Amino acid sequence: MKNLDHRVYLDALNQINEKPYVPVWFLRQAGRYMPEYRAVRSKFSDFFEMIKQPEVCCELTMQPLDKFPLDAAITFSDILTVPEAMGLEIKFIEKRGPVFSKSIIKNGSLNLSNDGINEKLNYVYQATALIKSNINIPLIGFAGSPWTIFTYMFYGESPKDFNQINEYIKNNLDYVHQTLEQITNASVQYLKSQIKHGADCVQIFDSWGGILQDNYQEFSLQYINKIKESLPKDIPCILYSRGMTLKPYLNQTSLKCFNLDSGEKLDDYLNQNIAIQGNIDPQIFHKSENKIKNLADEIYTKYKSNNNYVCNLGSGITPDIDPNKVGLFLKRLRLLNSE
Ligand code: CP3
Prior knowledge:
CATH class: Alpha Beta
Distance between the termini: 30 Å
Mean pLDDT: 96
Bound molecules: coproporphyrinogen III
CATH topology: TIM Barrel
CATH architecture: Alpha-Beta Barrel
Strand content: 5-15%
Shape: globular
Low-confidence stretches: none
Oligomer: single chain
Order of helices and strands: HHHHEHEEHHHEHHHEHEEEHEH
Number of strands: 9
């Protein structure tokens, strides 16, 4: 096992980064925008077949780390491993995304099971341990929020018409809460085991939290809080909630780390006794080299004295982004960090 000798990312999450150094990692830092990823991906017809091989997950996690100066690694996997382990069949279809063979919309209530869930997810823990033995920077484990997983179970694919799920949850309260509870239990086991196998911190992706708006506490945050309270106290837990303004909820959670989406005003969150990462619009990578360098300069100057700031994006890197532009930003920030 290599030493964790580059801790600046964890220090920022714990609000104790005293160095004039802005730690950085990017949402979806591994993936289709990288030719190295596409080369590995082309050897597999099925995404799950690929991620069930720990050596391949390790290789894919390392690809961006070998190429760019990053301060954290994130296990290469997916949030849909949990519903798959609960018994749902899922395929990833090019240009369409995930497609479930059954969904609540088409089939009514689903036959989900948490039996043997940790054994079924063992491939993720093996990948976690293998990655951990290959890196000296912090490793981030992750899961989807119960609400976001429920959203995929409901639509059987990425949601389009948000009214459908908002109507359904109003009229099927018992089934919805029972299912959210079941996903929560699976997610607690999932994250605890990732931590046992080497994850230094965890991120919960509430990618469809924004669908809820006024019902956010009842259907999403309540369950995220349950997960957070079940995890070891010394393990930072980061919440990413897309499309939600989180400020009104800061006093309704014991979470201390937030990945803000691009719609939020980051400066509103900096002096709240919490750690903040994220917020940069990935569209920046479609701009000129000068604009990208200027943004790195601006971020360094503005945030280098904050002990609780992590540079990251407000949503993931998309396949149309040029990896050279990503590298340009990261190399510039690293140069500034070593000043
Ligand atoms: O470096 C990394 O971040 C890679 C690991 C990672 C993946 N998915 C790999 C992946 C992570 C952290 C995720 C999280 C994830 N998965 C989220 C939350 C983050 C977010 O973007 O909001 C969500 C909503 C999913 C669900 C999911 N998985 C979708 C919608 C898709 C379709 C295509 C896409 O990229 O959005 C996937 C498949 C997937 N997961 C791919 C990758 C690289 C592409 C699949 C392929 O190569 O065929």
